[in-house]
Amino acid sequence: MRIHNLHIYNTLTRKTEKFVPLHANLVGMYVCGPTVYNNAHLGNARTFISFDVVFRYLQHLGYKVRYVRNITDAGHLESDADEGEDKISKKAKLEQLEPMEIVQRYTVDFHGVMRAFNALPPSIEPTATGHIIEQIEMTKQILDNGFAYESNGSVYFDVEKFAKDYNYTVLTGRNLEDLLNGTRELGGQDEKRGRLDFALWIKAKPEHIMRWKSPWGEGFPGWHLECSAMSRKYLGEQFDIHGGGMDLAPTHHTNEIAQNVSCSQNNTPVRYWMHTNMLTVNGQKMSKSLGNSFLPHELFSGSHALLDKGYSPMTVRFFMLQAHYRSTLDFSNDALQAAEKGFIRLMSAMKILPTLKTADKSTVSIADLEAKIYAALDDDFNTPIALSYVFEGVRIINSVNDAKESLSTDDKIKLQELMQQIVHDVLGLQQEETANTDKIDGLMQMILDVRTEAKSRKDFSTSDLIRDRLKEIGFEIKDGKEGSTYSILK
Ligand code: AMP
Ligand code: ZN
Fold first, then answer.
1. Residues with CB under 5 A from ligand 2 (ion)
2. Which ligand is nearest to the Cα of residue 277, counting in written order?
3. Contacts of 483 (CB under 8 A, 6+ apart)
4. Which of 41, 105, 382, 420 is the most exposed place for a label (fewest CB within 10 A)?
5. Does ligand 1 come within 6 angstroms of the Cβ of 38?
6. 95 lies in which domain range?
7. Residue 245 near ligand 1, beta carbon < 6 Å
8. Same domain, 258 and 296
9. Cβ 247 under 6 angstroms from ligand 1
10. Cα(249) to centroid of ligand 2, in Å?
11. Which residue, among 433, 441, 342, has the nearest Cα to 395 in the 3D structure?
């Protein structure tokens, strides 16, 4: 285990707290996964990339992490108020497909997007439909404990009853009275007793395709229940970290806590709640329903009308890590262009690093740099600050390459390890080699040889012409004592 001082901002306490796992060296982490009824958009990707860095950093520190991220393949209705159709059934009807064909299509798409962004797969990726038995069992337990009631073949959670014994709004700190006042009154037709009550089990209407047998008749589980049942099954009645987008806190996560608490009577099922902020477009949350969402492939190819050009997956990942996960991140061409330049600079420095010459002693402190990077990551995974110090590393690399600073052999090894571990292992950024990289390298070497040859004949007009023409197309030549090298500018 690396010695560290990791602190996490906990939504539950609204404080940044020292991270102490429940069991030494082990971390249990649950993140709400996608509802697979359409293509994952970039906003979704931002949330999962943020937790990928959390997963990577915890592993890097030496924890054995069990990271559970579910796939919602049933039970997610169009509205949070248990109204509307199941999102997957609706899409299946629209496309005249079996619901599981919809699930398969968009699960495959989601995995492809995650791979493109170099996000590690979670340790377990359970599905709602694969855990119907667990969800029925949990509903029974909550009924037995007196916090739910059956009504016309559906089962509802009794929020006001729960709120008498426990703090229902513990996660958001909202006032229950305000919440009640802000929710529409029940009509005579309603099956619910209280206006904040939510469904644990929903009776299937005759036309509903995705249905299972239960003690209350044929139906399907409520969306909030799946996460409670699966986190409990794989991580236990109490576990370390639960995450998701901050839009999930007021309803989905609030209800998850109520379900877990009422089932196990454990007051704090999750010790650290982490919420990511939204990716916005011109200040508005990126969402499918608002019609302002980008699909990752539209960004990679540049085919979206709002884009000037395409950006590679690593550029986009880099762009996302330049903002802290709890800040909003606004999407713009300018910001992406700046990110592209930064990412290329970083990758060029990573390539030069192994070739740096060493000296007897260093003129820079790598230990200092290391301490600053870890301090940033320990401060609630502050990737923008960590990246600014990574760029301090880039500056050192370039200065040593230009013989303006020097590095001892030990420090060079240290810097190489540091940059590899932080850039590749923790931030998940990697070189984007195209199939032609080796060929470009060979071609450039040949051009540099011709230029060196011209210089040796004192034909400086040719050697300058080669340098200038290369610069025009984005290659910068550096002449050193040991010969010439090139870097890609862009
Ligand atoms: P969904 O598939 O809608 O259940 O969303 C999957 C995850 O993406 C959830 O954690 C959401 O909070 C998150 N999410 C949705 N829209 C955005 C956005 N614009 N920015 C960041 N995260 C988002
Ligand atoms: Zn969830």
1. 32, 227
2. 1
3. 448, 452
4. 420
5. no
6. 7-148+161-172+226-276
7. yes
8. no
9. yes
10. 10
11. 342
> Residue 137 corresponds to which amino acid?
E
Q: Which of 410, 426, 442 is the last residue of a domain?
A: 426
Ligand closest in space to the Cα of 230: 2
Give me ligand 2 centre to Cα 6, in Å: 25
Domain presence at residue 350: yes
What does each C-alpha distance from 74 to 228, 230, 450, 465 come to in angstroms? Answer: 15, 14, 64, 64
Whether 117 and 71 map to the same domain: the answer is: yes
C-beta of 285 in contact with ligand 1 (< 6 A): yes
Ligand 1 centroid–CA 45 distance in Å is 8
User: How far, CA to CA in Å, does 378 sit from each of 3, 6, 19, 235, 484?
Assistant: 11, 4, 9, 24, 40
Contact by Cβ (8 Å): 31, 67? yes
For the stretch 270-312, pLDDT in tens is: 999 999 999 998 889 998 878 888 899 898 888 888 888 889 9
- Would you say residue 187 lies in a domain? no
pLDDT in tens, 45-86: 999 999 999 999 999 999 999 999 999 998 788 777 777 788
Same domain? 236 vs 365: no
* CB of 43 shorter than 6 A to ligand 1: yes
Pocket lining: 297 vs ligand 1, CB cutoff 6 Å? no
Alpha helix (H) residue ranges in 402-474: 409-419, 437-456, 460-472
Is 46's C-beta closer than 6 angstroms to any atom of ligand 1?
Answer: yes
Mean pLDDT of 23-30: 97
309 and 384 belong to one structural domain:
yes
